[in-house]
Structures are given as C-alpha cells and as structure tokens.
Amino acid sequence: MSRVLVVEDSRTFSSMLSRRITEEMGHQVVVADSKAKAAEILATDADFFVALLDLNLPDAPRGEVVDLVLAHGIPSIVFTGEMDDELRDKFWAKHIVDYILKQNMDNVAYMLSLVERLHRNPGIKVLVVDDSKNTRYVVGELLRAHRYQVLLAKDGPTALAMLAEHPDTRLVIVDYNMPGMDGAELVSTIRRDHAKDQLAIIGISGVESAGLTVKFLKSGANDFLHMPFLTEEFYTRVTQNIELLEYIAQIKELAEKDYLTHLYNRRYVFSAGPKLMAAQTRRGQGVVLAMIDVDHFKNINDTFGHDAGDSVLRHMAALLSARFRASDIVARFGGEEFCVLATDMNAADAGGVFEELRQAFETSPVRFDGQSISYTVSIGLCTSPLGGLEDMIKAADDALYVSKNDGRNRVTIA
C-alpha cells in the first residue's frame, strides 16, 4: 500500500490529516510528532511517496526536519503558520514540493490535492527540450521533485525521436532558441501527430517578446513561460496543463464508456471502429466482428431481479475484457447485446475462438446473493470487411438472428 509520512506535533491536526488521507484516498499514514520520532521511523523504513512536514516542531523549530526527510529522497510538502519571502526562498532552494499555510481548510484541501497529484505523477512522462544543458538539468530536477518521469532532449530532431519512442508522453516543455529547428517549428511538427487533448506543450524562452508568446501559441503550444520564472509559477502551469488533459480524458470516458460494465459503448464503436479497420487494412490484416447476445435475459431479470441481471452483464464484460487484447474494441452495444471488433485474428480461426468463448459463458455461472445463475449466449460473426463497419455489423446481426432462431447458445458465421 502507498504510504504517507506526516510529521506534526499537533495531535488534532495530524489526526485530521490522517483520517482524510486514509478515508478519501486510501493511502496508509504514518505519524511522527517530532523530528526525533521521524528519524526513528526513517531509519527502519523510508518507503513513503510523500511527506507532510510541520516547519515548527519542538525539537526542530526552524524546519530542520525538511533536510532529514529530503535526505531520504522523499518528496516533501511543508506547512506552517506563517511564511515570509526569505523562508520561502530557503525551502524552494531545497526542492520541496510546495508549502502550505495552516490558515483555513481550503489550504488543507489544496495539500490533499497535491498528495494525490504526487501519487499519480510517476505514470506521467514529461519531455524537456532545450539546447542548454543547464536548463535541461534545472527543469528536469523541478519535475523530478514532483515525481514525473523526465525525458531530456537537446534539440528538435532528438525530441521527435523520443516522442516516437515514448508516444504516451503527456507534456513537452520546449525552448525557442535552438539550432537547426527552433521551438515554434518543433511545436508545429509535433502537432501533426499529437493533438492538444492528448499532449500539452509549454513554450519557454528568456527572450522578452510578446510576439514570441503569440508565435508559440499559434504554432500549437498550450502555454508559455518567460524565463527566469518563479518556481511556484512553473509548478502551477505544469499542473494545470496535466490536469486539463486528465479532465478531457474523464469527459471522453464518460462519453465513450458504458456506466454499468465500463466497456466502450455503441457511440465509441461507430467512432473508433472505422479507424481501426483502416489501420488493419494498411497493415494488410483483417478484422472479425462479433455480435453477442445473452439468451433469455428477460427471464433472468424476471426470476432473479434486475440487480442480478446487472451482475450477469458485468460478468460478461469481465470475461470479454480478459479474452481480448487492448488493441481490440469490446463494447456493450445496447441492453444485453455486446460487440467485439477483434484485430489480428485469422478468419479461418474466428469460429473456433468464439466457440471457446461461448463455452466459457456456458460454464461460468454468476454468483449473486447466494445463488448461482447460469446463462448462455448466442453469437453472430462477420469475418469479411465487406463495405465497411456498418455492413459488418448488419452481417453479424443477421448471423446472430440465425443463432437465435436455430435454438440459441451457438455461433453462426455470416
């Protein structure tokens, strides 16, 4: 389990933090009420993904606990009753994650959002592109302090090669003045293959020019930072751009996923299906489309209740997800009907593959409310691309109709 270290001498405040982190986020919290206790804990186990540190402890009144925790490589958020410019600069220089003023509950909410941000960041890749080795290092260290995966490139061509190798990169930070290909040219090139809802780009430059900001933004950048920048501004811009991508992804998932089974929905099939088929055609490979329907589903609902019917649908979804690759499209098409668009499957083998699937459903009863519910499915297959996705769906649906008319619990190939 992921763990959080809290070092705070106020039992009331540490208890409140522990409760919220445990209940709202599911992380384990270890509390120390002094620097000495924190040192004792870290001496035996320093496996924490973040530490929340009070700057004013009885045995460490000037923030000495920060050095102790950072020496163990633990990202640290500090909190205090007051913070002046000198103290703030002192702790930013140590590469803390952030500082929080203990003034109101809004600040506590911000702290907790930072904790969750740090928990997610190791799965996020950020590419820094700058011909200055020093700038690459400084920006890279700032990002590592927030637990991002950091990729470094010294010029445009190297950056493009890295993006090709790491297509799941979510943020690019790019300087303008670079030899061969300037930052705006690089941004334009990146945007040919990476949309704004998939990859954010922040331009940076030490050149004071409003025109440069506009040039970056018109080339496809999401944001721009003048150098030198405040550390707080840098982190705020990075976090806002990453979270915007996450919000967009959440909205897309709500639009494309079925709420009950968490499979893709009918809308997604018609949106992504043609693209998948076109990609398979370019590779000289085919697709197989299956329509799958639960037999006598109304009887299940009437006999066991609609909650039991929902359990059957979730059971089907889990089995389908386990049987097919991430590159395939598995969707709840509507009601008790499911659609599978399978890639890299030989048409000659499709019948056998889906016959095994049919048998798996038949021999895998659902446990619900102490009862065992057995069910079967009928399957219609189309193994030829025909005129496109809609034609394949119609052919598979017709084959499914034959399976139903011929007694159900069988596979029919169009």
Structure report:
The protein contains 15 helices and 18 strands. The chain has 414 residues and is of the alpha/beta class. It has a six-stranded mixed β-sheet, with helices on both faces. It has a five-stranded parallel β-sheet with strand order 2-1-3-4-5, with helices on both faces. It has a five-stranded parallel β-sheet with strand order 7-6-8-9-10, with helices on both faces. The longest helix has 26 residues. It is flat and about 80 Å long.
Task: Please outline what is shown here.
The chain is an alpha/beta fold and 414 residues long. It has helices spanning 11-25, 35-44, 64-70, 85-92, 105-120, 133-145, 156-165, 183-191, 210-219, 231-256, 266-282, 297-304, 306-323, 347-362, 389-405, and strands at 3-7, 28-32, 50-54, 76-80, 98-101, 125-129, 149-153, 171-175, 200-205, 223-226, 264-265, 287-294, 329-334, 337-343, 366-368, 371-373, 377-382, 411-413. The chain folds into 3 domains: 3-119, Rossmann fold, CATH 3.40.50; 124-254, Rossmann fold (3-Layer(aba) Sandwich); 264-413, Reverse transcriptase/Diguanylate cyclase domain (Alpha-Beta Plaits, 2-Layer Sandwich).
